[in-house]
Write a structure and sequence with these properties.
about 0% strand, mainly alpha
């Protein structure tokens, strides 16, 4: 199993692909279609998030994942919930940097993405792809009542 540092490097590389998806969609929605900045950012971030989940699941956290459709859906739900806070924070940061500080949109967007990357990594490592806690006696599989050991 790779050290957390190497896993974070992978997470950031995957995040780089998400930044590209985010930036292209932000440009297409805001500049191309004329959507407002907040709506454009929210949609762009969610599509980038789905891109990142697929790559992180397949590569970054591959050795930590459980198999099966149910486990995959649970990881996707956890990833989405954890990153939802990151998306909200990045929208707030983007608007603050553009509106209050007068910074350029795309520079501000990059800085907002970087600011939430550590949040997303550590929470996803801990809650999204961590092995389930060992089962206690109440959650342990039931033994066959006819079997005596």
């Amino acid at each position: 199993m790779p050290a957390p540092g190497w896993r974070y490097v992978k997470f950031c590389l995957v995040g780089g692909s998400g930044v590209a998806v985010d930036m292209v969609l932000l440009y297409l929605l805001a500049d191309g279609l004329g959507w407002n900045l907040t709506a454009s950012k929210a949609v762009a971030a969610e599509v980038a998030l789905l891109n990142n989940f697929l790559w992180n699941d397949a590569w970054t956290f591959r050795g930590l994942r459980q198999s099966g459709a149910r486990a995959w859906l649970l990881r996707l739900a956890k990833f989405n919930l954890i990153c939802l806070a990151g998306i909200a924070l990045s929208v707030l940061l983007l608007n603050a940097m553009v509106s209050w500080l007068g910074w350029k949109v795309y520079l501000s967007n990059c800085l907002a993405i970087v600011a939430v990357s550590l949040w997303n990594f550590f929470l996803n490592l801990k809650f999204g792809w961590s092995a389930p806690a060992s089962r206690g006696p109440l959650l342990a599989p039931r033994m066959n009542a006819n079997r005596h050991e």
